Amino acid sequence: MADVKQGSYLKYGMLVAVVAIITFVTTWLLFNVRDRKDEAREVSFRLADITKETIDPAVWGKNFPRQYDGYKRTVDTVRTRYGGSEAFQRLEAEPALARIFAGYAFSLDYREERGHAFMLLDQDMTRRVKEYKQPGACLHCHSSVIPAYRKAGDGDIMKGFEKVCAMPYTDARKLVDHSIACIDCHDPKTMDLRVTRPAFLNGIKAYMKTKGIDNYNPNTMATRQEMRGFVCGQCHVEYYFKGDGKLLTYPWMNGLKVEQIEAYYDSVGFNDWVHKETGAKVLKAQHPEFEMWNQGIHSRSGVACADCHMPYMRDGAVKISDHHVRSPILNIARACQTCHPQPEAEMKTRVEIIQERTRKLLDRGEEALVQMYDEVKRAKARGVSDAALEPALKLQRKAQFRLDFVAAENSMGFHAPQEAARILGEAIDYARQGQLAAATAVK
Ligand code: HEC
Ligand code: HEC
Ligand code: HEC
Ligand code: HEC
Ligand code: HEC
Fold it and tell me: How far apart are CA 309 and CA 413, in angstroms?
């Protein structure tokens, strides 16, 4: 009996001990979870007072150290097969470009873009600024410029924007001292996403009008998901400087597709430069990421720039947006696999298959263009008049703008694969038509 009793005391004791341990562990876990939840809730540390004049990201970084940390990492230098952040000279990588941009500043210096931290420095350094007169309008997308606009316009940002656009670059440059900063995408009071760039506000308003929406204002009318693309669309877009005031303008009055943009330029009689080899009045496309993405399946499915270029990440118990904006190829696990279950290597291959196909079509397009220039030059050498060559030169303008629309877009086709192929198909066709027109102009 005693043995049995002793045994049951022992069992009882063990039970108490187990219960005590379980209670302890559960309580500890509960506290730990609560701590972590508190940590997660603590998105801001509120040490610094941020106002609409606070440009310096280091000050914002006191309140939001995690995002600041990522932002600072945009100085990295990593090359991917068709992109990445190494600022190599594109003119050396692609000799055809020197002929395509003959007579234009881009034939001097045209680099692969790199991280956000460098945008002001790279603009200061390029031969396109050092050796050509550029307007203050350049700074709109390369600096934290809104407080300068506010000051130049006596409180009216739109007015200041117009003034600064018209200034010579060297004068306007004195008004700014920082690359893109937190204040360019966030409301300093609420931290909500917002768009601040006047040219984007004007451009998106014109575009929405084509869809029957008047007086569109993204800051009050866009969804949160739309804002996750609009903040990037402030700068990653096609643009031109309108008139003598050099007013920075996004050519979206007919829509965002290449032929709609071209139709706008035709309607206002705009050309970027006169091609040195042929005399054609031609256009240069600039980084139309926003426009191309708009034509792709991800945009149709509601996937925004930030989903791939600023994906969510965990830092302790906190879920934050990765402010290290960069190529998603360097970050496939977070950028793609949240939605696509395929292995990393497979996702990388899918991107590279699209890019390689685009690159091959681009090569053919460049070849077609260059052969067309040769045909036009031959015709000129045989005394064919400019008037007789006019049809060929018009076709050059069409071919060249389409080719460049894909070449200057920075995803090498990925943002909208089939649209990129369609545009390049047209480019090649127009170039060959132009070549034929030049050949038949020789009597
Ligand atoms: C579905 C994911 C996805 C979305 C959405 C997306 N991108 Fe991309 N983006 C990519 C991939 C993949 C590349 C190719 C990167 C490479 O070749 O290294 C790329 C390339 C780029 C590049 C060149 C990067 C480099 O390192 O050379 C820029 C700039 C860019 N995208 C901007 C944007 C903008 C702006 C938007 C929204 C208007 C956007 N992207 C939407 C996936 C995406
Ligand atoms: C609408 C916004 C916008 C305007 C205006 C703008 N840029 Fe840029 N710029 C960008 C974006 C986005 C990139 C990165 C993508 C790329 O390089 O294609 C870039 C890249 C660059 C680069 C690095 C790559 C290269 O092309 O060598 C230089 C230099 C540059 N811009 C100079 C200028 C100059 C000079 C002007 C004025 C004539 C100007 N930018 C006006 C948005 C803009
Ligand atoms: C104020 C204008 C501006 C805004 C807003 C902006 N960008 Fe950029 N972005 C640039 C410029 C300019 C460069 C090129 C900088 C250089 O080459 O020095 C660039 C470069 C990049 C690159 C290339 C980085 C690399 O490592 O090669 C990516 C990717 C990119 N931007 C994506 C985005 C995304 C996504 C957004 C929105 C969340 C965005 N950008 C918002 C102007 C802007
Ligand atoms: C090019 C635009 C851009 C810039 C510049 C930028 N952010 Fe963001 N930020 C975003 C986007 C996009 C999100 C996601 C917001 C959403 O989905 O509602 C975000 C989210 C945040 C959030 C909310 C929590 C999170 O991580 O999702 C904080 C806080 C934040 N950013 C702080 C900063 C700070 C601090 C800086 C400057 C060091 C900064 N951001 C610069 C675009 C930007
Ligand atoms: C937020 C979710 C989301 C993210 C993040 C995302 N995708 Fe997608 N992706 C989609 C959806 C939705 C589709 C359309 C699929 C459908 O409707 O069948 C798609 C389609 C695709 C396609 C087929 C494209 C075509 O034209 O048919 C490819 C390739 C692709 N994604 C690659 C990527 C890569 C690479 C990344 C990361 C850089 C990525 N996706 C990130 C949701 C996402």
Answer: 16
Percent of the chain with pLDDT over 90: 87
CB of residue 362 inside a 6 A radius of ligand 5: no
Concatenate the DSSP letters of all residues of 220-263 into one string: HHS-HHHHHHHHHHTTSS--EEETTTTEEE---SS-SSHHHHHH
Q: Residues of the chain with pLDDT > 70: what percent?
A: 90
Contact 426, 402 (CB under 8 A): yes
337 lines ligand 1 (CB under 6 A): no
Write down how long the chain is.
Answer: 443
What does the pLDDT look like over 412-422, one tens digit per residue?
A: 999 999 999 99
Mutation to probe ligand 5, out of 224, 225, 299, 303 (largest number of atoms < 8 A from CB): 303
pLDDT digits (tens, 9 = 90+) for 174-195: 999 999 999 999 999 999 999 9
Q: Mention the CATH class of domain 57-441.
A: mainly alpha
Contact 300, 419 (CB under 8 A): no
Residue with the smallest CA separation from ligand 2 atom 14 is 113
Instruction: With residue 11 as reference, give the H or E element that holds it.
Output: helix 2-41
Ligand 3 contact via 115 beta carbon (within 6 Å) = yes
With a 6 Å cutoff on the Cβ, whether 180 touches ligand 3 is: yes
Task: Write the DSSP assignment of 383-431 as a string of letters.
Answer: T--HHHHHHHHHHHHHHHHHHHHHHSSTTTTTTSHHHHHHHHHHHHHHH
Atom 2 (ligand 3) nearest CA: 141
Strand-pairing partners, residue 312, are 321
Looking at ligand 1, which residue's alpha carbon is closest to its atom 20? Answer: 411
Classify strands 247-249 and 312-315 as parallel, antiparallel or unpaired: unpaired
Kindly report the protein residue whose alpha carbon is nearest to atom 2 of ligand 5. Answer: 339
Q: At what angle do helices 386-407 and 417-441 cross, to 10 degrees?
A: 160
Closest CA to ligand 5's atom 24: 297
Domain locations along the chain: 57-441
How would DSSP label each residue in 290-353? HHHHHTSHHHHTT--HHHHHS-EEEETTEEEE------GGGGHHHHTTTT--S-HHHHHHHHHH
Q: Is 117 in the pocket of ligand 5 (CB under 6 A)?
A: no
Q: How far apart are CA 278 and CA 386, in angstroms?
A: 10
Ligand 2 and 86: CB distance under 6 A? no
Q: Out of 292, 293, 301, 349, give the residue to mutate to test ligand 5, the one with the largest number of ligand atoms within 8 Å of its CB.
A: 301
pLDDT of residue 367: 97
